[in-house]
Amino acid sequence: MNFRQIEAFRAVMISGSGTEAAKMLFITQPAVSRLISDLEYQSKLKLFVRKPNRLEPTPEAQALFKEVDRAFIGLEQISMFADSIVNKQQGSLRIVAMPVCVDSFLPTIVSDFLQQHPKVSIELESAPRIQSLDLVRTARQDLAIISIVSRENLGLQVKNLCRQQAVCVLPAGHPYCDKPVIHARDLEDQPFISLSRGSPFRSKVDEIFTRENIKRTFAIETRTHRTVYEMVKRGAGVAILDPFITDSQDHEVVIKPFLPEVTWDYAVVQPHSATPSLITQSFVALLMAHFRRAEDS
Question: Which pTM does this prediction carry?
């Protein structure tokens, strides 16, 4: 037996006649009769009693129909699932990003994406830069959002998102709050709150102070921009931070331009070898649109 025979059988069971079944299948009534006869011959079952203007199903036909209908429901579900994939409404997305990204802009973008794709499941992981790259290279994550260095060859597909410039964050009421710009030399005698050693951002900031021959008084060293920011708010010291983590409406801190400039880029990286899913492509498009709007505003 073949699928076309089963399809004709199901149409007859639903409609009650060969004529109506033919309309459902967009074929002729004799074609339906031939398909049913072939099915009965191959299955060795008598499925219908022929009566005027209708086909009356036998008990064997009723039993067979239960299985056929269950199979068709499964096929319809598969078809619906396939449509949902095409429309980027079903599936999963694995994202890894540096902590500063997870603690700042990513929650908003992920929430916006889920409003558009409510049946998509998202795994969002926070990891340092090197670990994030490793997770993408080994296909344990679909994409990573990281800081990058100019002309750096990562061996991955790279799409730039934005350029950032570090700012100086002071606790409200600090004597330097009236300064229009904070220079590295201004911080020589200040309690300094810093990211831990090994952070790419820490390395860039250290390079500035080393080049300017300025010694800092380290009060606290910790692993995330968010923790540094919270420590500044509580008056524990001053810091140089990624502006992503700051809040211009926060009255407990004062944010100032910092010189010499400390700049870097953020990018989304994906494997070269694998074709990204439609869901991944859609998320990256939303991510890049977010930064285009921010740049234009």
Answer: 0.71
SS3 217: strand
Which neighbouring-strand residues pair with 270? 157
Residue 212: give its domain's CATH number.
Answer: 3.40.190.10
pLDDT of the residue at 44: 87
> How many of the other CB atoms lie within 10 Å of CB of 86?
10
Query: How far apart (Å, rounded) are the C-alpha atoms in residues 165 and 269?
Result: 21
Distance (Å, whole) CA 158 – CA 269: 5
Amino acid present at 100: V
The CATH number covering residue 46 comes to 1.10.10.10
pLDDT, tens only, 115-135 = 998 888 899 999 999 999 999
**Would strands 91-97 and 143-148 be described as parallel, antiparallel, or unpaired?**
parallel
Q: Is 286 exposed, middle or buried (0-12, 13-18, 19+ CB in 10 A)?
A: middle
Are residues 49 and 120 both part of a single domain? no
CA 119 and chain centroid, separation:
12
How many angstroms separate the CA atoms of 211 and 41, rounded? Answer: 91
21 phi and psi angles, rounded to 5 deg: -65, -40
Domain boundary among 40, 60, 86: 86
Are 282 and 268 a contacting pair, CB within 8 Å?
Answer: no
